[in-house]
Amino acid sequence: MERVRLQFWNALGYLSTFLYLLFVLLAGITYAGYLPDALKRHVSSLLQYPFEKILPPQFMWAFFAAAAVFSLYIAVLSDRCRIRWRPAGLEALPAPDGGYLQKVGTLYLRQELDDVLPSVRREAKRFFRQGERHFAANQYQAAASAYLKSINAARTISAHLNLGVCHCYRSAFDRAMENFELSLALARRSKNEKLAAASLCNMGISHRERGKLTDALLVFKQAVGIGGKMNDFISQSCSQGNLGTLFMAEGRPDEALKPWQSVLKGFESTDYRAGLAVALDNVGSVYGMKREYRCALDYHKKALALYRSIGNLPGETQALTNAGLMYLRLGKLRKSLKTNREALRLAGWLNCSSDRARAHGNIGLLYEKKRKLGDALKSMDKALELYERIGNPIGAATQLMAIGGLYGSQGKRAEALKRLGEARAKFVQSGILSSPIESAIERALRQNPYDKSPRKGPREFIQSLFIRRPKKQPAPKAL
């Protein structure tokens, strides 16, 4: 039924656009007095009435002009409905730091409340719809409060799942995990495979953001399996894309590109703009990891345009942060600073610590490139503080590596070594392989633009941090 509704808006949009162009043409022709007699005879034969009595000649062009305006209104309305269209069941939304979160609409809530007392059903529905309105307005604190009231009226999978999504957008991943676990337990008890897959998919995002990549991989694979059995496009796409984010977190862009390209191809065949925007943004991030910065920037710009067209502020914030990083890599520092500051403003309005941390980290790298090392260290320390506050060890480790690189460029080897040791410990805690991290550590300190010394291997370089240069002996005093 959802696809039929979407196809209806598409067909209506194409038809009304065609009629608008036709009526504009006829209005121009009749205003100039060149309406063909054959057209008049055709209309008269269809209506079995003389054409001049249907519409006086002096008002003909006004009639066609009014019809053109009406057709344009219908075309705009249908296009707006098509852009704002989203599934009545499961929605695919951008997750913090990449990937998909799945949210439930009112369709499943009505099914869950069929066997509940009418008074309880009305109360639960009223608060749930209130939460939906707040969620659509990007007011996640108010939405979380409304969903919680709906849960107090009647415990439903839908309300727990959506409450967890609200907590994710506020970077409260522990509280999000509690709600996703409850929604999974309820879904399994009621044998609702689709909502069980959505709960698993969201649980994987929470595991990933807390640095538990092994647990995330486990639940993502379960979600992929359930989605494959149901042959559900959104469930499969979200789970495959989220698997790709794990490869990105481990620094393996070549392995991440394949699932994301598959997801992108699938969403390009639909008109679901939120899902398509997430895929475009994440494909851009993969190309950024592969150092194809211009290609990555093109993808981020497309994602940003789609997010703005549907009014999704979390997605817009992420796309701005990603685009700001690509501008930085391309050397467009002024554009990068403007983009990251806009992302920081939106993240502050949304109260999303994860996006604020990413924007602060990007601004720190920008100041480092401009040789404003004090400002760079201040921004990186702020990003590190935010990542540690929300319990994201991978983000904290990435910032520690950046801070270590900053100290290394200043020749402060002891501080650099301390930060790198902390970064390695957090990466190992998250289950990320050590060899890519060694290479990343080398790049952080050896491939900065201010270090002109010859490259060394990661092990040799780490060892060189311990070697103290001999102090210069004072010149012997003259006798």
TrEMBL record:
Keywords: Membrane, TPR repeat, Transmembrane, Transmembrane helix. It comes from the Bacteria. It comes from Abyssobacteria bacterium (strain SURF_5). Signal peptide: none annotated. InterPro entries: TPR-like_helical_dom_sf, TPR_rpt. The keyword Membrane applies. The chain crosses the membrane at residues 12-34, 54-76. This is Tetratricopeptide repeat protein. TPR repeats lie at residues 357-390. SMART domains: TPR.
